[in-house]
């Protein structure tokens, strides 16, 4: 088990964002765990979202940029199955200790996780325009 945890931490890389003495426990978890996982899994999240819109939103590629941004947000916030699969992609790279921390405050951490993922996908919306060609 220890080998897995060591591997995961090394594989994910460094803390992203600022952690200081004033940082809350959730902020520390976000910057030390969630952000590095989101960065590492970025290509997978792009592929998963493209698959999602191809199956569920066939007109997505003809939407305006503003409507695409709204669709990204609504898809993650309102489609519970989709959101749960995205959470699973993140949680699979938690160490056991990180999982134990996560379950103590999963509701707030899920909000942080999904908001960061929404922002990440929105910031890469141009990739979803290329897919239509």
Structural overview:
The chain has 133 residues and is mainly alpha-helical. 76% of the residues lie in helices and 0% in strands. The N and C termini lie far apart (45 Å).
Mean pLDDT: 90
User: Distance between the terminal alpha carbons, to the nearest Å?
Assistant: 45 Å
Beta strand %? under 5%
Number of strands: 0
What class do helices, strands and sheet pairing give? mainly alpha
Sheet bearing the most strands, described?
Answer: none
- Estimate percent helicity: over 70%
Please work out how many helical segments DSSP would assign. Answer: 8
| Rg over CA atoms | 16 Å
Overall shape: elongated
Following the backbone from N to C, one meets helices and strands in this order, namely: HHHHHHHH
| Regions with little confidence, pLDDT below 50 for 5+ residues | none
